[in-house]
Specification:
By secondary structure, the chain is an alpha+beta fold. The protein contains seven helices and 16 strands. It folds into two domains: 7-111 and 320-348, no CATH class; 118-316, no CATH class. The strands form three sheets. Strands 1, 3, 4, 7, 9, 10, 13, 14 and 16 form a nine-stranded mixed β-sheet that branches. Strands 5-6-2-8-11 form a five-stranded antiparallel β-sheet, with no helix packed on it. Strands 12-15 form a two-stranded antiparallel ribbon. The longest helix has 77 residues, at 321-397.
């Protein structure tokens, strides 16, 4: 709030406007001081006294004792009002996903939010609130998307099997197309943790592989299951895909909890974060290795599993409404007490020193005037006595 940097920061800075008001107050103080010595008209003097009376009524520090305190109070009120405006805008910068740039501050990235992130084991029993979010994640239907890039293989050469229990069952794809030398197919996964085998009965080469997972968004009161869009590409310059392609996808549960700023119920969000631990070198052949290979089928084995841990992100406000109100009252009290202390020092130290110096100066001037008057009288008496002596001498002579 008190940072001054660029031109925009200067304009919105409370210190800048406080200095502006303080400068105007200093100008009024100077004008009032000069008018004390140059105004002789009784009407204008009454106007001057009326202005002083008005400023005494705005004095927050001396309780109406000093009219100068009213001028200082205006600058303090300006500073406190900026603090209130800043607090009002800052409290609305929560949660972070619903906030915008903070144009009320010099740093537009500040938010009324802080975060905690922890890695927790799934072996630890979940709370009831967390369990509801995990239920939504466990029930999310996933679609496997596979793209074979730079190949002339057709969909009729594709067969898909899923390992359900100990038995492999043939399943059908949802979509399959070969557009611009890219064979794309989509498969509805029967379970989230499953082994899918895509068998290609064709000897044509494949340049690269792209695997993705998709899941729909779902909302249930304060629980939001976010849409899953994941893609991972596998390619290597100067190489083509091997005949056996083992790919492992590990799904990590990520739970986001957003605490309410007014003490209400928390809002939960959840999403899967897939990661792949596949060895790149096992997925590719050189051209010579591909020619020497005796296999006529290309087999893609995709295994999806869940990590034994989950990530818990907690978002909470830096300052709540009650804290903002308390901080504003505390800031107002500090400003009043600080300026009140300055005025108290003025009354206890500076004002007595001023009167002491003024009295000493007055005494010194009075002493000088008396000495001058005494010297003048003495000189005059000497002249008179000298004139009388001359007259006596002259009379005696005659």
């Amino acid at each position: 709030m008190f940072r001054i940097g660029s031109n925009r920061c200067v304009v919105i800075s409370p210190l800048f406007w406080t200095l502006i008001v303080g400068s105007l107050a200093a100008g009024i103080l100077i004008i009032m001081g000069i008018s004390k010595f140059i105004i002789k008209d009784p009407r204008k003097k009454r106007t001057r006294e009326l202005i002083k009376k008005i400023f005494r009524h705005t004095d927050l520090f001396g309780e109406g004792e000093l009219w100068v305190g009213g001028l200082a109070s205006l600058a303090t009120i300006t500073l406190v009002c900026f603090a209130y405006v800043f607090s009002n805008h800052f409290i609305r910068q929560y949660p972070i996903e619903a906030s915008s740039d903070s144009y009320f501050a010099c740093d537009t990235t500040i938010r009324n939010a802080k975060f905690q992130t922890g890695l927790q084991s799934l072996a630890i029993p979940l709370t009831n609130t967390d369990q509801q979010m995990f239920d939504l994640l466990d029930n999310q239907a996933l679609v496997l998307n596979v793209d074979f890039v730079n190949t002339f293989i057709r969909c009729d050469a594709i067969s898909i099997e899923a390992l359900i229990g100990l038995v492999r069952s043939i399943i059908r794809w949802l979509n399959c197309d070969n557009i611009n030398s890219t064979l794309s197919l989509s498969v509805q996964l029967p379970y989230q943790h499953v082994s899918i085998q895509v068998i290609i009965a064709d000897v044509k080469t494949i340049g690269a592989l792209r695997i993705g997972l998709y899941g729909d968004k779902h909302e249930n009161e304060n629980y939001v299951l976010k849409e899953l869009k994941f893609y991972r590409s596998f390619f290597k310059n100067g190489s083509i895909l091997a005949r056996n392609l083992p790919v492992t996808l590990s799904l990590t549960n990520v739970i986001n909890e957003t605490l309410s700023i007014d003490g209400g119920q928390s809002i939960f969000g959840g999403i899967f974060i897939p990661t792949s631990t596949t060895d790149y070198n096992s997925l590719f052949f050189t051209e010579d290795q591909f020619v020497r290979s005796t296999l006529t089928l290309t087999t893609l084995n995709i295994v999806t599993s869940e990590t034994p841990y989950y990530v818990k992100n907690l978002q909470e406000p830096i300052a709540k409404s009650s804290e903002i109100v308390f901080q504003n009252l505390l800031f107002t009290t500090v400003c009043l007490e600080l300026f009140g202390l300055i005025f108290l020092l003025f009354k206890l130290l500076l004002k007595p020193m001023y009167y002491y110096i003024q009295s000493k100066s007055f005494t010194y001037l009075e002493t000088n005037i008396n000495n001058k008057q005494h010297n003048t009288c003495s000189t005059y008496q000497d002249k008179i006595s000298g004139s009388n002596d001359a007259d006596i001498n002259e009379t005696a002579y005659f």
